[in-house]
Amino acid sequence: MSRRDGPAATVFIVDDDSDLRDALSGLFRSVDLATTAYASAAEFLSTPRSDGPGCLVLDVRMPGLSGLDFQAQLAGLGIHLPVILMTGHGDIPMSVRAMKAGAVDFLTKPFRDQDMLDAVTAALARDAERRSRDTGLQAMRTAYETLTAREREVFLHVTAGLMNKQIAGLLDLSEITIKIHRGHVMRKMEARSLAELVRMAQALGIAPD
Amino acid sequence: MSRRDGPAATVFIVDDDSDLRDALSGLFRSVDLATTAYASAAEFLSTPRSDGPGCLVLDVRMPGLSGLDFQAQLAGLGIHLPVILMTGHGDIPMSVRAMKAGAVDFLTKPFRDQDMLDAVTAALARDAERRSRDTGLQAMRTAYETLTAREREVFLHVTAGLMNKQIAGLLDLSEITIKIHRGHVMRKMEARSLAELVRMAQALGIAPD
DNA sequence: GACGGAATTATACGGAGGTTTCATTCGGGC
DNA sequence: GCCCGAATGAAACCTCCGTATAATTCCGTC
């Protein structure tokens, strides 16, 4: 509860150079950021870790998986932490590739402490933003899971703007049945108005076309 | 009508090196891309130009405004063309800055023709995507402009999910008046259902909170 | 001063939404 | 065989939405 970036944000450092790991750890601790350091991507992956807010600071050149390769794999592993890359022997194509892949920043060693701190601040802000976007969405997805197949059909057509009788015609059902399903959808999704349901459909990516 | 990127996509080249301008023009014409070249940012800005689809290919080092400075100014000038930067004497911080500012790519001279073509293809795709997003939005904004102040208030509350009588209470009006305004909103916005109106509100950034 | 648009409200009516109650059918699962 | 949830639907009832008609007020323009 020390900074504006929220509770328990952790900077995960992955670098094979123990001196740099220590230096970075000290730097981040000096601004009250929790820090955990690893000597390799493999060590990071094999160590149990809470999925709290944070960001990754990766060295590009490491034995085993390079920082760039590791970055490319993260999404597939379900890890969405923002990434900051650093390198002592980089080139422009490398940095461009990293930025295209979504890196927050790409720093060349030696870098100024303040540049690293700025990058981490930006990364934590991005993570916080993603998390707040995700939080509401997760509850919606969970609620959506509880819908039956029929209810999902009705959900789709209702949020597309069709009237009950039109949906009834499409699905070859009676209007009263649509009303029942529609009521179930509203209750299960915890929507208090059609407008809210439409917004949920948007957030869930349930487009009419 | 020669490529999948739509009608009349133009590559705008801005570089003070006339040899490179000619080479790039030839390259783009070889794949049926319309091309216009300029020797400086100022020349580009002072030349009348249709606002059709396209992208910009900028040299970083130019007399007058540099490619990076020019890129930074584009949004303020209402120009949203995707930017590809190229340089013969760049460094990593420069490329990172450009990518952070939204550049599609950052190429170092000499580059392979195919790399430039790939970058342009990506840039045109990004432009086409932005345009298709913008097209519908522009019509909505125009329609929204025709709404009176009262109608906009009602629009806001309706798409927030409030009932007519609740809106009437908030605005200290009778329910029938809300119904009238609501009808006007639907007609002026050309929305055929409440769901459609809610989606428009989302697209227009008219959030309840 | 006349005209028109915006805003307001009332009455009335028809259509659409939503819930409750009751009832039937169909598949699983114990 | 029995129970349960999902799906279906009919009847009744109430609320909400939407429009048409008509009227009043205010404000700015011609």
UniProtKB/TrEMBL annotation, chains A, B:
PTM annotation (4-aspartylphosphate): residues: 59
Its keywords, alphabetically, are:
DNA-binding, Phosphoprotein, Transcription, Transcription regulation, Two-component regulatory system
Query: Could you tell me which SMART domains the record lists for this protein?
Result: HTH_LUXR, REC
The cross-references to InterPro entries, in alphabetical order and at most eight, read: CheY-like_superfamily, Sig_transdc_resp-reg_C-effctor, Sig_transdc_resp-reg_receiver, Tscrpt_reg_LuxR_C, WH-like_DNA-bd_sf
What does the record list as GO biological process?
phosphorelay signal transduction system; regulation of DNA-templated transcription
According to the lineage, what is the superkingdom?
Bacteria
Q: What is the name of this protein? A: Response regulator transcription factor
Recorded source organism is Methylobacterium nonmethylotrophicum
